[in-house]
Amino acid sequence: MKKTLIASLLVGTALLAACGNEDGATDHTTGASEHQHSMANTHQNGSMDHEQLVLKDNKGTNTLIFPAILKPDSEKGKNVEYSLTAQAGTTELFNGYETKTYGYNGNLLGPTLRLKEGQHVTIHLKNDLPEATTFHWHGLEVSGKADGGPHALIEPGEEKTIQFTVTQQAATLWYHPHPMGNTAQQVYKGLAGLLYIEDDNVEALNLPNDYGKNDFPIILQDRAFVEGKQLDYSKVANSDGTYGDTMMINGVINPVLKTDKKLVRLRILNGSNARNYNVHFDNDMAFTQIATDGGFLNKPQKMKELLLGAGERAEILVDLSKVKEKHVSLVNDQNVVLLPIDVSDTKSAVNASTKLNTIKVDKALLEQQPTKVVKMEGMRENVTINGKKFDEKRVDFTQKKGETEVWEIDNAITDEGGMIHPFHIHGTQFLVLSVNGEKPEPSLQGYKDTITLQPGQKARIAVKFPYEGMYMFHCHILEHEDNGMMGQIEVK
Question: For this UniProt entry, which residues form the secretion signal (predicted)?
Fold first, then answer.
């Protein structure tokens, strides 16, 4: 797994190993000699060919904090209302420096929404940014009108209200902007938040569920800071995916998780623009995956490493009572430290349920030929789906509401080379039927909305849309998405 990940980063792309300073972050500036490339349809100007930076160790100098849980404006029975505002502000990410950031209901990132299956939800959305944005609910099964894709622009100062009923099972989802040509920049500045769905099944599973105590949200994001510790996207952007050299988790630079030696649940979101994370522990201990993007696996799966492409989520259980020392680290390839974990007192570990879900794959689907083929090709500005760039006036596919079709997703290798592409579909949770004709590995045997494919891989997935509307499908490397590696499907 690790070798494949390293090899697939980029053909011919140089990596810059940056020198650290006292904050563990490096200022990056751009010289006039940089090649100039512009993204199709982007609102941002400047070079799109900056170096993809090598990630440095997280030094663990700051205590990890967790997003606040958003309180409802009102709640009557199953009817619940919330308000979310996208806004600009400043955040002291480094001592003595105020970094310009974006956030929801605050200066950086957003609060965690906790919804329950069966609730009728109203969300009042407001844009206080100096630019247009959208509110996209990544992984949520809602109508196209509520999905928040690029068609749903909210101009500065405008407000919008959406309504939907929660009809899917417990899952860890997230929300972020999705304006065409400007998603990467807005996410990079801080627009992202978590959305939890809960159901009656969760309480019976005996899982760690005390938010911020033994049930930890972990939003992984890599960032590069320029002069004055600023997040200036135009000075670091790369058309094949913007990589930072500094680890930011839950909006904290170089954080450390402090907890007891007990069973903990990590809900990991790869919220980076492009970087893949092959997460494992530096002491080589095993952990247990219990959930994918869209909910619980049928049964816990023990493993020692897990690949997460941009936009993907996974829930894992880690028995920290087995850590002999007082320190262990979640690491990436080459053992680059993502999250140091300091452990203190030993607490008794909870025995979690061994049966989590009852997902059944229709065997007839395994033999069915695909009715839709998505071919992802190219690199940099040449990225396409089925040889085309996104056109909001063109409908690429149609599908009937409630009907299951088999899609084939092809991560093609061209004369330019190939790279990992995480493929995402709005408005649905799909099931992976096969990868290169073989049964998917355990980490893919749950509901998914994003699948990360190596160069040359083909996956077949079973796709069903429960609602009507126009939905996007695209590479979740945000720069590729902005550059037109996206199509749309109309569900009727």
Answer: 1-17
Alpha carbon distance 178, 160 (integer Å):
15
Cβ–Cβ under 8 Å, residues 465 and 425: no
For residue 277, give every residue at least 6 positions away whose Cβ sits within 8 Å of its Cβ, in sequence order, or none: 220, 270, 307, 308, 332, 338
Q: Which residue has the tokens 């596919």?
A: 397
* Residue ranges, the chain, pLDDT below 70: 1-48, 348-350
Strand order in the sheet with 397-399: 397-399, 486-491, 469-475, 421-425, 450-453
Flag whether 234 is in a domain: no
Instruction: Specify the amino acid at residue 245.
Output: D
| CATH number for 380 | 2.60.40.420
Q: How high is the pLDDT of residue 417?
A: 85
In the numeric block, the tokens 């893919």 are attached to: 444
Q: Are 201 and 169 in contact (CB under 8 A)?
A: yes
Chain centroid to CA 299: 23
184: number of Cβ within 10 Å = 28
Q: Is residue 455 situated within a structural domain? A: yes
**Rounded distance, CA 122 to CA 130, Å?**
25
- 171, 138, 144, 19: which is closest to 450 by C-alpha? 138
Residue 230 DSSP one-character state:
B
Closest CA to 191 of 171, 173, 211, 174: 174
CA angle at 479 for the pair 475 and 483, rounded to the nearest 5° = 80
Residue 369 domain boundaries:
363-491
CA distance 72 to 86: 17
Q: Find, among 125, 115, 85, the residue nearest to 103 by Cα.
A: 85
Neighbours of 287 (CB within 10 A): 23
pLDDT of residue 149: 97
Q: How far apart are the C-alpha atoms of 446 and 296, rounded to whole Å? A: 7
Residue at 331 is within a domain: no
Question: Cα Rg for the chain, rounded, in angstroms?
Answer: 21
The reported pLDDT for the residue numbered 6 is: 36
CB atoms within 10 A of CB 14: 7
Q: How many domains does the chain have?
A: 1
pLDDT at 349: 65
Query: Using CA atoms, how far apart are residues 264 and 318, in angstroms rounded to an integer?
Result: 5
Q: Quickly count: other Cβ atoms within 10 Å of residue 382's Cβ.
A: 14
Q: How far apart are CA 418 and CA 414, in angstroms?
A: 7
Contacts of 289 (CB under 8 A, 6+ apart): 297, 300, 301, 303, 306, 314, 315, 316, 442, 443
Measured CA to CA, the distance from residue 187 to residue 178 in angstroms comes to 9
The reply to whether 428 falls in a domain is: yes
Residue 32 structure tokens? 């006039």
What's residue 32's pLDDT?
29
